[in-house]
Amino acid sequence: MLLTKDVSFEHSSSFQLESIDLHIKEGEIVSLIGPNGSGKSTFLRLISRLISPKTGEVFLDGQSVESMKSQDVAKKLAMLPQMQDHELDLTVAELVEFGRYPHRGAYSKLTKEDEEIVQWAIDVTRLNDFKNRMLQSLSGGERQRAWIAMAIAQRPKILLLDEPTTFLDISHQLEVMELVKELNARFDMTVVMVLHDINQAARYSDRLIVLKKGKIQFDGIPQCVLCKEMFQSIFEIDADIYQENGKSFFTPIKLRKEGFV
Amino acid sequence: MKAAGVKEHKNAHPFAKKRTVVLVALSILLVLSCTVSLMIGPVSFSFNEIWSGLFYSDESLERRIVWELRFPRVLIGLIVGMCLATSGAILQGVMKNPLADPGIIGVSSGAGLAATVIMIIFPAYILFLPLAAFLGALITALVIYTLSWKGGTSPIRIILVGVAINAIIGSFMSALMLLYSDRVQSVLPWLAGGIAGVGWVQFEMIIYYAIAALVFALFSIKHIRILRLGDEVAKLLGHNVEKSRFFLIILSTLLAGIAVSVSGLIGFVGLVVPHILRIMIGGDYRYLLPASALGGGLLVVLADTVARSAFNPIELPVGILLAFFGGPFFLYMIQRRRDSFASN
Predict the structure, then answer these.
(1) Would residue B95 count as lying in a domain?
(2) For residue A84, is it within any domain?
(3) What is the mean pLDDT of each run of 10 residues along chain B (344 residues)?
(4) Given CA atoms A131, A135, A137, A143 in this order, what sign does their dihedral have?
(5) At a CB cut-off of 8 Å and minimum separation 6, what does A95 contact?
(6) Residue of chain A nearest B284, judged by CA positions
(7) What stretches pass through the bilayer (chain B) (predicted)?
């Protein structure tokens, strides 16, 4: 589905991504975790072509994204960046209609099919009661769902989410995560997301990838990745790991760095 | 069933009613103000008199004043206002910044400098003044765009570079006026901005450019809307952000250049009209852009009518009048808006 070969990126001498080889399979939910500045978001931005890699290539369905037209990439891949404009004068429905842009271009009208897809995206994200509301009048969780609705109206095969739950309260966080799960289960969307909450990542993902200093340090199913060694080497904390119903989760115990304890 | 549902949501848009009311009201006011503008002046005419002045070509006084003097002036006021407000609206949309205006990022002063050079140093080439103003604006826009390029542009960098360029051009302008202080007299009215003494010649000079640019502006609405989603989102949807931003900046420059070439430096219209309308009908450019064009035309026609009749026999430059009344009105609107936010 998605393949990166020797992808590297350099922003400054202090920040770089080094030679990342990764294969993301169809239908997977993959979460990228790691400390601040580890390159998670940068990696998503490289995949989505928002920035170009210094070396290496990203392949989408076997095609190099560099060689594809932007609109063709947008038909297969949708991404929700971290920050959106909160001042947009659009209703939910108007925002979601933009998801059809890659398929229609700027000048043609929405077809009946487009309108059905827009309505589908609104229904899936449970925004039908809000579709004529202005974005500014929505709560943070509703607004986030509206942006997700726009992204899935692109009918992408792969959905990239950059910290979709940051700034949301806990119930809205779960709402977004459940939505992601549903999109994956019912509509077969491959999901790659950056998450800060490691327990949520472990609970909702098929696979965790841990980045630190621009390198992949761990890659595997949550039960394998969530271990004491990972928390020690990546986050420099001691943590207790628990298992319940086949899901792993952790509680932080203490910092390992001296001077703080 | 589906189609009906879609129609329903269009009708239920929270701004739907306001938009219709504002657009219709602007159109009616525009026609009224043009009519009134034809009627009043040092010599006032009745409606019947301007009617015959417009449509019966004879040697009467009405004909000469209405057809030869007032009508082209009203039309030019209309075009200048439409171009300025559309230019401002486009720039504000592209930059996602309510302060973006050809006057603020230096495009207008680029036109002003070129025109001043012609008037002061090469007065023999005065016929080329509109062309020079136009080129001045275009070159300034290209310089700003080039200087703000750093592997791509960003709205804030364009604005900052523009403000700096504006200051530099201002210093050139002051230097010119000091060096040629004996000839400044001829430049001042132009710098103050106004359409006194314009006629059919000027009208014919700009009308085709204006129509072309305004039609392009209508087609550019879709680009503005998608850019307003933010650079990243627009790129992710497969839109070529840099290309359409460049195209829109040039279009905005041309619109400003068309206005400046006949009216001199009329500020404020491009900044204030879209802003006030945005407060009234929201920021959807499918409505805001046409409304701004109508509002700009209305404002300049009205202001010109007042400027030439209120202090008869002295004529005030429209630019000064607009700044004098527009400034406080703008402050009032901002104040009111803050109140309404606070009460929410």
Answers:
(1) yes
(2) yes
(3) 44 82 97 94 87 85 88 96 96 86 88 90 85 90 92 87 94 92 84 87 90 96 93 93 93 92 88 90 94 97 91 84 82 67 35
(4) positive
(5) A88, A135, A146, A147, A149, A150
(6) A89
(7) 21-45, 71-91, 103-122, 128-147, 159-180, 200-219, 246-273, 285-302, 314-334
Range of the structural domain that residue B87 is part of: 15-338
Name the token pair of A214: 């621009």
pLDDT at B3: 44
Q: Give yes or no for A71 touching B (CB within 8 A).
A: yes
Residue A152 domain-assigned (yes or no): yes
The CA distance from B210 to B216, in Å, is 10
Does residue B344 form part of some domain?
no
Total structural domains within chain B? 1
The CATH number of the domain where A213 resides is what? 3.40.50.300
Tell me, yes or no, whether A100 lies in a domain.
yes
Spatial contact of B193 and B133, defined as CB atoms under 8 Å apart: no
B96 touches A at CB < 8 Å:
yes
B110: domain CATH number?
1.10.3470.10
Residue B6, in any domain of the structure? no
Instruction: Please indicate whether, in this complex, the C-beta atoms of B238 and A88 are within 8 angstroms of each other.
Output: no
Across the interface, whether the CB atoms of B228 and A50 are under 8 A apart is answered no
What is the total count of domains within chain A?
Answer: 1
In this complex, do B226 and A106 lie within 8 Å of one another by their Cβ atoms?
Answer: yes
Shortest CA distance from A160: residue in chain B: B236
- Complex prediction ipTM: 0.91
Q: How many CA atoms lie less than 13 Å away from A189 in the CB half-sphere?
A: 27
Which of chain A's residues have a Cβ under 8 Å away from the Cβ of B233? 81, 84, 98
Report, as ranges of residue numbers, the positions in chain A whose pLDDT lies below 70: 13, 85-86, 258-261
Give the angle B105-B109-B111 at the CA atoms, nearest 5°. 115
Quote the minimal CA–CA distance from A182 to chain B in Å.
23
CB within 8 Å: A89 and B230: no
Query: For tokens 């390159």, what's the residue?
Result: A39
For A113, name the nearest residue in chain B, comparing CA atoms only. Answer: B2
B96–A85 CB contact, under 8 Å:
yes
B222/A48 touch (CB, cutoff 8 Å), yes or no: no
Contact B13 A91 (CB under 8 A): yes
Would you say residue B10 lies in a domain?
A: no
Say if A98 is an interface residue toward chain B (CB within 8 Å). Answer: yes
Which pLDDT value is given to residue A112? Answer: 94
Q: Please check whether residue B201 is in contact with residue B126, taking contact to mean a CB–CB distance below 8 angstroms.
A: no
Q: B207 CA to chain A: closest CA distance, Å?
A: 27
Residue A165's domain spans which residues? 2-225
User: A116 in a domain, yes or no?
Assistant: yes
